[in-house]
Every structure is written in C-alpha cells, then in structure tokens.
C-alpha cells in the first residue's frame, strides 16, 4: 500500500510545436496561410468573407483554367446540404420562389435537371448566376396568378426589384471581367441563358434575341476549331466547357431556342451550331431513353428541316431570277383559275426529294416515341401530358414543314385532318392541366409547347370551324412560352381571320377562302409591354416571279 504522504514524482511536460500540414489544394492565399480552402469558384469564399484578397487558383500545365465537369453541377440537390445563399430577406423570398415554383414550371411539360438541379447548384457558387436567378424568381412572382402582362398585387415593386437584381448580376459580370477574374465557360453561358429567360418572361423580345445571339456566337466559337471562328471570349480567363457538357446540356437547349426565335421571326436566319448540322441528316434512334430525349431529337430534326426548306427556297429564287440557269423561257403568268406559279422542274424535283426525306425521318421519330410509350405504360399524369405535348409538336411540325416547301398557302388545305388532330389533343391537354392545377392560371415557360401549333391552326388552317376552335384555345388559355405569347397570337390570328373572310358571307370550308384573300405573315415585331405588335404580311399566292406587295399593320390587344 502506497504511503499517501510520500511525494509523487512528476514527469515534466514537453510542449512540442506541431507544424500545420502542407496544404496541397485550394487557392493560393489559403495555401500560404496553410488553412483548409473551400475551393469555391471563381474565388474562395473563406478569403472573401474574412476580407482577404483571394489570389485564385494556380493553373495546371498549359491550361489557365480547368473545365468544370458536368457532374459537379448535376449531383442531385438532396446529396448536398441545401441552404439559401442569400442574407437579404427579399432576396431569400425571390430565391425560394424560384426554387419552389419557377424551376418546376419554366421547362414546360417536360422534367428538366437543367432547371431543377444545375442552375440551383450553380447559383451557390457564382454571384452573377445567383442574382439572375433571384431576378427571374421575382419577375415570375410579379405575374403569378394573373394573365400574362398583368401585374398582381405588389407586382410593380417586385418587377423593380427584379430589375435591381438583374443589374447586380451584370455588375458582377463586369467586375469579374475588368479584374480578369477566371471564370468557367459553363457559368458564363448559364448566366446568358438566365438573361434570355428573364427578357422573354418580361416580353422584351429585342433584348432576349440579343442575348440569344451572344450565346449562340459563344457556343459556335467553342464548337468550331478552325481559324475562321475566333474565340468570342478570351481563353486567358474564360475556360471552354467540356465536350460532354456542351453536347448534353448546352447544344440541345440552344438548338431549341434557335428554332423558337426563327419561328417567331421568319426573317431571322438559323445559326449553324455544328459543322454538319445543315447538311447531314440527323440520326434517329430506334427508341428514346426519355421524353426529354425525344424532345431533343425533335428539335434537331426541326433545325435540319428548316435548313433544308431554306435551301429549296433559295434555289427556287435563284432559278427564277437567273433565266440563263433555266435554259427555258419564263412560265406563263398566273390566272384566277390557276394561281400557283409554275416552277422550274429542277426545283420541283428537289422539293419532292426533300419532302420524301422529311416524311421518312419524321416517321422514324414517331415510331421511336411510340415504342417508348409502349415500353413505359406506367407513366404518371404529368408524363402523359408531356407525351401528348410531343404528339402535338410532331403533328404541327409535319404540317408546317411539308406545306411550306411549296411556298404557297393552298398547300395547307390538304392537312385539315392533321389540323383537327392538333386542336383535339390541345383541348385534351389544357383540360387535363386545368384539373391538375388552378383553373385559368397562366403558365410561363421558356420552351415552345402548344402555342405555335395552335397559332398555325388558327392562321394556316382555313376551315372556319377548326380555326375558330384553335383561336378559342388561344384566347381562353393565357400563357407565355418563351417568345410566344397567347394574347399576342390570339390578336394576330383574329386579325388574319377577319381579313381573309371579309366579304365572303358564311364560309363553310377552306375552299371558300380564295387564294387572293389569304394572308401570309412575313415578319412581326412585338412589344408585349405595350400590348401591341407590328406585323408585315402579303396577300395572295407568293409568286417568285413578281415583287411582293408587303403591307404593314399595328395590332393591339
């Protein structure tokens, strides 16, 4: 037993200085301080929050910037601790509205990881994207529950707040550019897409088209590796996205936006996103992996068909304007009994070849979609509505592309059964959606869904009953799909119907509308804020041998 009074021998404590481990990754400032870096891009948040200047990230080998991998953005939201990246209460409200409402509606009927995951996660690391998201959420809330163009209560204040947030986003972009702070190409283009959506949402077509052209030019410079296409953005501080990100995320979305802009503004030219998109026929799979996959293939198909149609029309006008190329005398003038101008045989052969080619590949697309639906019989109601929407787009595309090849409106009369199918499917889709959500609630999305087909049904279908059914859907279903606004389309369609049927009495069929009375829209310049649109049009069959008699009218609603 130890003696409790005996002194205890103590061991001296040697205090050793433990050196902090060498930090191998992170920004240069954190490496010098030997602290863990959060590796946020383009600057470390740990530095900026403590007031230090972040020296950025050291380049590897020859690349100043490393491309951001797609998977960094596309990990499911549930895998990371989600928190609102804003401290201001109003900003938090707008961001939450985008998170809960806008991201779910902006893609239309189809689900979209782009809006539900990628954009939301990118907003946590890039201040420009964050403020653009807040601006879009606030703009969406300004009109929520009201007809397009009508502000709800407190909407004007939120609209002004959206403008402030948009200016903040632009300010961050300008500050990063002037300071030459490295940025990923992904974040640059994502910001551009958000600005396109914000401007189309607010009805600013000119600004939206300007942002779209900028985005397309940037994308084109990344896709073409030759001396003719110089980089739009300096590679010294803007990295090029990975090929995977370009092909899976950016090209499909910009292709759909490019097609949308060309359909609403016929005088606009399509952008050639890849070297062979205008000449090489799209490869159609035997089955689609998803409804979004089917939508992307349909957009590629429409893009290619528009190029084909333009090629046929350019050839037509070249042959007509160049008598030496015809090696024949000019055809006889048109008459009331025969209003369709005779075209050179070589042009007709080319048109028939394109028509056959279009029909074959459109049939392949439909077969692939039907096979997908046959193999996936357990689709939920939302997916079923998306499938119906794709059938509407398919039928409308088939009508417009085939009929427009011949460059005269009498060709549309033989597609009345297809017009009726579009209208019937649209009626079902709108009724189904009304049962699922608040009745008469306007919808906003950046994608084309049912508005273009319904507009063509009311303007290109001359059957009085069918076109009025389509017009009624435009008038009773307030919505905005990118550049397409239902109220503007309804007002334009109503004007065309009145113009074409004036003085005819009770027209009962398409044949009652003479060729000389038919209206063809050549271009339109909308101002949705002022609720007006200037349209340029011509009447009668477009004769390539004669100069068009272009008229202009202001339509208001």
From the structure above, extract its key features:
52% helix; 2 domains; DNA binding; 3-stranded antiparallel β-sheet; transcription regulation; globular; 557 residues; nucleus
What would you note in describing this structure?
The chain folds into 2 domains: 81-264, no CATH class; 291-556, no CATH class. The model is unreliable at 4-21 and 59-82 (pLDDT under 50). The chain contains 18 helices and 8 strands. It is globular and about 90 Å long. The longest helix has 31 residues, at 291-321. The chain has helices at residues 28-33, 45-49, 70-74, 89-105, 113-122, 127-143, 155-178, 185-201, 205-223, 243-264, 291-321, 323-326, 345-375, 381-404, 416-436, 451-459, 464-476, 486-501; strands spanning 183-184, 238-239, 443-445, 479-481, 484-485, 519-527, 532-539, 551-556. The strands form 3 sheets. A 3-stranded mixed β-sheet has the order 3-4-5. A 3-stranded antiparallel β-sheet has the order 6-7-8, with helices on one face. Helix content is 52%, strand content 6%. With 557 residues, the chain is mainly alpha-helical. This is Zn(2)-C6 fungal-type domain-containing protein. One of its GO terms (molecular function) is zinc ion binding. Keywords: DNA-binding, Metal-binding, Nucleus, Transcription, Transcription regulation, Zinc. Residues 26-54 form the Zn(2)-C6 fungal-type domain. It comes from Hyaloscypha variabilis (strain UAMH 11265 / GT02V1 / F).
